[in-house]
Amino acid sequence: MKTIALLKILINIFFGFFLLLLAYNIWEGLIFMIQSPEEMSNFWMLEAYGQTESSVRLVQLHLLFETIPYIPFALGILFARNIVAAFVRKEFFSVTVTRNFRNAGILFLVASVLMIVQHMIGMAILGRPTVNLIIGHHFSYAFLIIIGLLFIFFGHVFSRARELEQENELTI
Question: Which Pfam family, just one, is annotated for this protein (predicted)?
Fold first, then answer.
């Protein structure tokens, strides 16, 4: 139980820091959206794309929409927190745990697909690959897909374990 308690502390810390980063990214995107092209002339991303008003607006839109994939990721972490909280309460095979595993897995898969789409749109709009500033580069896509599939798999495993536990209780 010490491991589960430690996992709960670590996932809460990670979730808190992630929400702070997400809020900062959204705030930064909104700040850049209201700035004029002249005010953004010294912004580091514009050095590679030119100083035209249309390139400034494209960079502003890219910065704002860059945070969209992190919303399902944050929700997936929230479901993972709920899983750990159920484990602390010793509810290992409850319906809530299996549902949370499945939901977290689906959200991690959605986040990875949105990151790939966001990356491709960034390449099309800006003309060069974009850098995912919170999680990393292309490795994060594969990592999130694997994590999402593992969570879905664990959801099925815990669902089957719950069924076996119910059958076992009936035979006693």
Answer: DUF2975
- What does the pLDDT look like over 43-78, one tens digit per residue? 555 555 555 556 666 666 766 677 788 889 999 999
Domain ranges across the chain: 2-171
Report the predicted TM-score, pTM, of the whole model to 2 decimal places.
0.77
Residue 36 pLDDT greater than 70, yes or no:
no
Q: Strands (DSSP E) along 43-118, which ranges? A: none
Amino acid, single-letter form, for residue 93:
F
**What own/partner pairs with CB < 8 Å and gap ≥ 24 does 4-9 have?**
4/84, 4/87, 4/88, 5/88, 7/84, 7/87, 8/81, 8/84, 8/85, 8/88
CA dist 4 and 8 (Å) reads 6
> DSSP class of residue 66?
T
Q: Which DSSP helix (H) or strand (E) runs through 132?
A: none
Q: Which amino acid is it at 97?
A: V
Give one DSSP letter per residue of 56-75, joined into a string: HHHHHHHHHHTTTTHHHHHH
Q: In this predicted structure, what is the pLDDT of residue 79?
A: 95
